[in-house]
From TrEMBL:
PROSITE patterns associated with the record: HTH_ARSR_2
Biological source species: Nocardiopsis changdeensis
Listed name of the protein: Helix-turn-helix transcriptional regulator
Entry annotated with the keyword Transcription regulation: yes
This protein's UniProt keywords: DNA-binding, Transcription, Transcription regulation
Claim: Transcription regulation is one of the keywords in the record: yes
UniProt xrefs under Gene3D superfamilies: Winged helix-like DNA-binding domain superfamily/Winged helix DNA-binding domain
Amino acid sequence: MVEHGQGDGHACPSVFDDRRISKIHPSHYAGAKRRCEEVRVAAREQHHPPLDGVELVTVLAALAEPTRLKIVRMLAARDGERAWKDIDLPIAQSTLSHHLKILRNAGLVQSRTEGTRCFISLRDGDVSERFPGLLETVLSCERGALACGDTVSSDTGADAAAEAAVRPV
């Protein structure tokens, strides 16, 4: 081993010294380096399950949480995709990441990375094909409505809400 500064121009040897490892067996080193790069690339890519394997219960459970429902509404209101940073919710980034992972695993959203940016889009066409009318029904329901079909007019809003509250289910 050559110590630092002993005239051969090499840096101090370490546990991960390329020269030492490559002397063991160069093909093993090249293969290990290639596998590490493949793992790094795979870690950046997101897994999107095929919708034919997603159950309705999984989709409904993902949509049952109010924050995830807000995210789906944001994505549905804007055709195309949104940058991850443009999803403006008062939650931590780690929490947003968790919610997007649940929506992705339920088959509702699709993620795409471009450089250092991540873009999210709603898989509304695929979801509508697998579960016809589900997204339209869920998105048509306003937050706080007692029933999805109820509409409250602006002039008698309080009366209609009171009637809906006492109506048997």
